[in-house]
Amino acid sequence: DVSDNSSVASEGDWYDAIAAGEVIGRFLDAIQAAGAMAAPSVATDVVDGTRAPTSDAAATARRRAVLFRAADACDGLVRKVRESAVYAEEAGKAGAREALLAAKRACSADTEAPFRAKIDAAIDACEAAALAAMERVKTYRFEGNVEVKIIETGLSNGVGAKIWHAAKTLSKMLIADAALVRDKDVLELGAGVGMCGFVAARLGARSVTLSDFEEPLLLALEKSAELNGAGSVARVCALDWTKEVAGEDTPSSSTARTLDAYAQFDVLLGSDVLYESQHVLALP
């Protein structure tokens, strides 16, 4: 195929996201600990019949240690989100900005101004990274003059947020034998970014239902349908077969995404949908 952006996701990307999530989690644990630990209050004691302030050296020392670890975590957070889009995505998913703001509110003492400056730097870095990690539109051009546009988001939205090799391979197979989907009702399971479904629509499918269960993926699929001019053919449905086979409905923020329990399809498409043992075990 010929594409103006041929990059695809790999297992390494997924493992990187897992590792990044763990590191971001440790950073936020340290930052939240500082926010949860109130600054030591001034204690009082009665001396010669007069109540006078006394210092709590131990509490102050503990507070300083917690702030030191939190400041170091802020520096690490800034460095990681600036260096890596994966860390930036995981920081957004973990609510890093909100955690930083909460810690800043809790650290109001004048003596803690240096720590608040560290928090401000981390907030700025997270906000800048969030803007850079917004949805990315990619155009893929295959042989036979087949072109589709897809929207990629961050892996923090699930593995379906990126293009994987299997989707490109299945798309090529469909293009090589378009009769598989032409004038057919097609359901793509675990559609992710929807590449295979949109290729099927380009090849003349009568209808294409793109299904997944992560809310950000469903929103991106709906936008992609518009980008591909497939609104009259393609629809997006929330479908989690691990729930469906258990007799449960797939939750969704929109009733328009509900798949008719009696819907019938001529063709089922699925690429890289059984990559974990739990997905295989969930099948009937």
From the spread of the alpha carbons, the general shape counts as: elongated
* Total beta strands: 9
Taken in chain order, the helices and strands follow as: EHEEHHHHEEHEHEHEHEH
The major β-sheet equals:
4 strands, parallel
Per DSSP, the total helix count is 10
Indicate the low-confidence ranges by residue numbers. Answer: 42-47
Query: How do the strands of the widest beta sheet line up side by side?
Result: 8-7-6-9
Give the overall average pLDDT.
85
Strand fraction equals: 15-25%
State the separation between the terminal residues, measured CA to CA.
Answer: 36 Å
- Which structural class do you get from the secondary structure elements? alpha/beta
What Rg do the Cα atoms give? 26 Å
Question: Would you give an account of this structure?
Answer:
- This protein is of the alpha/beta class and 284 residues long.
- It is built from 10 helices and 9 strands.
- Strands 8-7-6-9 form a 4-stranded parallel β-sheet, covered by helices on one side. Strands 1-4-5 form a 3-stranded antiparallel β-sheet. A two-stranded antiparallel sheet has the order 2-3.
- Strand 6, helix 7 (195-202) and strand 7 (207-212) form a beta-alpha-beta unit.
- The chain is elongated.
- The chain starts with a strand and ends with a helix.
List key phrases describing it.
9 strands; three-stranded antiparallel β-sheet; four-stranded parallel β-sheet; 48% helix; 284 residues; alpha/beta; single chain; elongated; 10 helices
